[in-house]
Design brief:
about 90 residues; alpha+beta; 4-stranded antiparallel β-sheet; 4 strands
């Protein structure tokens, strides 16, 4: 999995935020930054930060994603996040 693959995953999250009901989500902007990327065989893990902007302010959350390569395609296995350190 190349870094362009991670960029594609990041774009997918950004697109998902934009394609949802913006009034319900309240998201105006989503920025994802990869902090660490490890690939071992058919498994990959990414740790990063997401910067979320809403009308009343912004938040930073940390995330970890695990992907597994099945039938030649990278598939999401785990996706967790929590509020970033204050």
């Amino acid at each position: 999995m190349s870094r362009s693959g991670i960029a594609a995953v990041n774009r997918r999250f950004e697109d998902a935020a934009r394609e949802g009901d913006p009034q319900q989500l309240g998201l105006e902007d989503v920025r994802l930054e990869t902090v660490d990327l490890e690939i071992a065989g058919d498994m990959a893990s990414e740790v990063g930060e997401a910067r979320l902007s809403i009308a009343s302010g912004s938040a930073v959350v940390e995330f970890a994603v695990v992907c597994e390569k099945l039938d030649g395609q990278w598939r999401l296995d785990r996706d967790i996040w929590n509020a970033g350190a204050a």
